[in-house]
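REQUEST ID: PR-0412
SUBMITTED BY: lab tech R.K.
PRIORITY: routine
TASK: structure prediction, single protein chain
INPUT:
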Amino acid sequence: MIRSHITGSGSALPRRCVSNAELAETVDTSDEWIVERTGIRQRYIAGDDETTGSLATEAARKALADAGVEPSEIGLIILATATPDRTFPATATTVQDALGCNGGIAFDVQAVCSGFLYALGTADAMLRTGMAKKALVIGAETFSRILDWEDRTTCVLFGDGAGAVVIEAREAGAGDTGILATRLHADGAHREMLYVDGGPSTTGEVGKLRMKGREVFRHAVVNLSEVLTEVLHEAGIAADAIDWVVPHQANARILDATARKLGLDPRRIVVTVSQHANTSAASVPLAFDVARKDGRIKPGDLVMFEAMGGGFTWGAALARM
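STATUS: complete
OUTPUT:
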């Protein structure tokens, strides 16, 4: 049996770091207000010369170096983003060309904050069926481009960044490593709760992000708890066996509420929302890379990834490192 293994990770952040105090100089808010409601203390904002594609490429290069894999070995690139460089072609093709591995498969997926989970699940399925042997799975966003900077309830929540992982197809061995189970869901009935009010076929403009925060919070806790339970059931593993949970970094309150609902040890949850804010599809791979590089996530650890985003979309994946 073929199983997909995560063999490297990398991340990239824009040069400019914006603290809550700096944001309060132009937005009707305060550091205390933001921290109390979200746990966010700072975020990174892309400059004019920084794009989703450039951040994704930087993260991909670091992931390849970490895995010891040459770009020429990559047969598949899936880039999760809601803020592509262009309507088309896919930003994944920009990354492919920058890396010099043209000729393989490259495309974008759009599931907003769940995008990385959707991309990871898709890449896993393609590797297990032999369409490629090694893949780059990337989450990258420049959400600052679609924020309404006069709406203090949303603009303080988001930041820009990118994270990437290399996954490789290997014969499953006795160690039971690799991606063990994945579950993905969507419910379009709730699409008006978190959306962008523009698009090529509607307004002809990019639009700005709009969100009904309380409803999103309520659905997030329920949906994430359920999908985590589904993945554990599929893998035949108890919740207390998980070494680390790497969640979408939307809001510290959502992370706490989900952990309590499932009885998870909060010390085993990787939390980077205070550093990066909500970077949408980039948040899970960004947090994963941070925890790998600082030594928390080690070979042999059982890691749960989870996220929920606009659509609504949500999902989870379990992997043994």
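NOTES: The CA atoms of residues 13 and 161 lie 5 Å apart.
REVIEWED BY: pending
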